[in-house]
Design a protein that fits this description.
35% helix; alpha+beta; Creatine Amidinohydrolase, Chain A, domain 1; single chain; 6-stranded mixed sheet; 595 residues; Creatine Amidinohydrolase
């Protein structure tokens, strides 16, 4: 099947003289996760992970992905022509390096310009120019061969009340116009779906597990125009838009609109999210004011109403996950249980909560060797039965009307080995180190990541993913610009951690073909004391779920480690126990026992 698709793609490339064709994981809005219509890379390669890029030449085909997906991609590409290129590994060429080797003078690099952002597009043009090659960005070749391609999603839109958002859409639009004036912009093009949803206080369901709406937005001093599939809008949503001064236009008319903008207009846009087709559709003499979308930082710093609602969401979620922990540890080995059925049971507990909307991502439930696949997704073919031994890694989360959650706990289902205990405890110490950090304002995640990795690094161990990411408010569970990472990203400035930012704390360790361990909670950045050295900052833990003490080796914990762990568990019991039955409280008391 995949060989036939690749053959058809190469035939279309040959017709157009294209010598290299690039297929990223992206939609028209540079979303992290994409709807079914946009899964072109998956259609061609068979790899289902959320991150990866395919490059096809007449003789070769490669897939580039990061460390979260090495094991999954290796498995899913078996029997396919695609070569797996492990990003960041020694001796592995980057995509630009591969293209330099395979693009010859007179060759042509092809891609759909609607799924390549302006920043990336310009780097590809420079690369092609240096090789004396051309660019073909006007067609989606995958669309020409994709039979029964899913339609663009057009799910109903709903409005969030101000008691959940803390600010009206009109207030947010006014604030954004103020920033435009400061930058000298007469128009602002906003194409990032979470940013648009945040700005308008609207949510939808056009991307799985991400309550966003396929749309574009154009803002000027005199008008705010939202380009959206109008059949998704109810009368109530139209009324909310009208009261905020927002006009509605058809989704497909955005390109015509921007082409009609006045000559020489200063346009504020984010070259990392605006696609290259949009940029090329602007008047030729438009003045581009480049920079991150102002909304990215505005929505990353949660206001007091959002913060209080988020605490409520986490408490609801903690009750569900704690009930799951009790069910899991008391029933494994007694009733039939698999990775999929365990994930379904956890979802059922969450659905009991008032205000539950949907999962914030597909639950990762990896038992034994599957826990070592960082972003594992169980299928009927891979679904392992759980036994009363070893480790089960469960990474999950939910959207509620009050906020978004993301939590990972690794559970001991019975006896675990000494090495499992050691590795679990090293991860735990790193997790506690970061959660307990105190630091001067001005620091970013790059400064703090080492706190989580150090216990592993001291043993010559590591994990191939970031330590933490920002979390949206009923939006993307992975939200920038705040993050914890030890490697700086070329071309990206480090983001200062501000009061109100929420970032995950999720160190891990993965032993291939054996087990995986990850412990994840969400941290709210808050101000601590201010003195002659400056403003100190700290974190408030928003996740109230026990860490499985049955996997801990107490002898590896310092007195301070034990203090921190015991204090965390005392808080968990205090917050969660009022919502449990007497029997459940007994189990929670045991799970949060002092050590």
């Amino acid at each position: 099947m995949y060989a036939e698709r690749l053959q058809k793609l190469r035939a279309e490339m040959k017709k157009r003289g294209i010598t290299c064709y690039l297929i990223p994981t992206a939609d028209f809005h540079e979303s992290e996760y994409v709807g079914d219509y946009f899964k072109a890379r998956e259609y061609i390669t068979g790899f289902t992970g959320s991150a990866g890029t395919a490059v096809v030449t007449p003789d070769e085909a490669g897939l580039w992905t990061d460390g979260r997906y090495f094991l999954q991609a290796e498995d899913q590409l078996k029997g396919h022509e695609f070569t797996l290129y492990r990003i960041g590994e020694e001796g592995v060429p980057t995509i630009p390096e591969f293209l330099r080797d395979h693009l010859s003078e007179g060759g042509v690099l092809g891609f759909d310009g609607r799924v390549i952002n302006l920043e990336y597009y310009e780097s590809l043009v420079s690369l092609a120019d240096a090789k004396g090659a051309g660019i073909a960005s006007g067609e989606d070749l995958t669309d020409l061969i994709w039979e029964d391609r899913p339609a663009l999603s057009c799910r109903p839109v709903f409005a969030l009340e101000e008691k959940y958002t803390g600010k009206s859409a009109a207030e947010k639009i006014g604030e954004l116009r103020g920033i435009m004036r400061e930058k000298g912009a007469k128009a602002h093009l906003l194409t990032s779906l979470p940013d648009i949803a945040w700005l308008l206080n609207l949510r939808g369901d056009d991307v799985a597990h991400s309550p966003v709406i396929l749309s574009y937005l154009a803002l000027s001093e005199s008008e705010c125009l939202w380009f959206v599939q109008e059949k998704a809008l109810s009368p109530a949503v139209r009324d909310a838009l009208a009261s905020a001064g927002v006009g509605v236009r058809p989704y497909g008319s955005f390109y015509d609109y921007i082409a009609s903008l006045p000559a020489g207009i200063p346009v504020l846009l984010d070259p990392g999210t605006v696609n290259s087709r949009i940029a090329s559709s602007l008047p030729k003499d438009a003045k581009l004011i480049r920079g991150k979308n102002p909304t990215a930082l505005l929505k990353a710093v949660k206001n007091p109403v959002e913060i209080e609602n988020t605490r409520r969401a986490h408490l609801k979620d903690a009750v569900a996950v704690t009930k799951f922990m009790i069910w899991l540890k008391n029933n494994v080995g007694k009733i039939p249980m698999t990775e999929i059925s365990a994930a379904d049971r956890l979802e059922a507990f969450r659905r009991e909560n008032e205000g539950f909307l949907e999962l914030s991502f597909s639950t990762i439930a990896g038992y034994g060797p599957h826990g070592a696949i960082i972003h594992y997704g169980a299928t009927p073919e891979s679904n392992l039965s759980l036994a009363p031994e070893g480790l089960l890694l469960v990474d999950s989360g939910a959207h509620y009307l009050e906020g978004t959650t993301d939590i990972t706990r690794t559970f001991a289902l019975g006896p675990v080995t000494g090495r499992m205990r050691r590795d679990f405890t090293l991860v735990l110490i790193g997790h506690l180190n970061l959660a307990s950090a105190r630091f001067l304002h001005g620091a970013g995640g790059y400064n703090l990541d080492v706190l989580a990795r150090l216990p592993l690094w001291e043993e010559g161990l590591d994990y191939k993913h970031g330590t933490g990411h920002g979390v949206g408010h009923i939006l993307s569970v992975h939200e920038g610009p705040n993050a914890f990472r030890w490697k700086s990203v070329p071309g990206k400035a480090e983001t200062v951690l501000e009061e109100g930012m929420i970032t995950s704390d999720e160190p891990g360790y993965y032993l291939e073909n054996e087990y995986g361990i990850r412990i994840e909670s969400e941290l709210l950045c808050r101000k601590a004391e201010k003195n002659e050295f400056g403003q100190f900052m700290r974190f408030e833990n928003l996740t109230y779920v026990p860490i499985d003490l049955d996997a801990v080796e107490p002898s590896l914990l310092s007195f301070r480690d034990k203090e921190r762990l015991n204090a965390y568990h005392a808080m968990v019991y205090e917050k969660v126990s009022p919502f449990l039955s007497d029997e459940e409280k007994g189990y929670l008391k045991h799970y949060t026992r002092a050590i």
